[in-house]
Amino acid sequence: MADHPALSPAAATMSDILVGVLAVVALAVAGAALEVSARRGRGGATVAQAIGAAMRTTPGRVTVLAAWLWLGVHFLAR
C-alpha cells in the first residue's frame, strides 16, 4: 500500500460524484431504451401507460405522489 499515493479528499469526492453521475446516466439510458422499445411494440408498457395504470388504485396514487415528492426534494428544490 505504500507504493500508492493517498488520494486527496477532493479527489475522493470527485470520484464519488463521478460514480453517481455515471449511475444516473446509465439509468436514464436504460429507461430511454425501454421506452423506445415499448413504443415500437416490442417491449412492455410505456411510461405513460404504466403511470396511468398506477393512478387507477389508491396505493398506486400514493406511490406516484411519493416518487414525485422524492424527485422534487432531491432535484428541483436546490
List keywords for this structure.
78 residues; mainly alpha; 3 helices; 0% strand; DUF6186 family protein; transmembrane; membrane; DUF6186; transmembrane helix
How would you portray this structure in words?
The chain is flat and about 55 Å long. It is 74% helix and 0% strand. It folds into 2 domains: 8-44; 45-78, no CATH class. It has 3 helices and no strands. Keywords: Membrane, Transmembrane, Transmembrane helix. It comes from Blastococcus brunescens. The chain crosses the membrane at residues 17-38.
Count structural domains.
2
Query: Which stretches are poorly predicted, pLDDT < 50 over at least 5 residues?
Result: none
The arrangement of helices and strands along the chain is HHH
Number of helices: 3
Structural class determined from secondary elements: mainly alpha
The counted number of beta strands is: 0
| Helicity level | over 70%
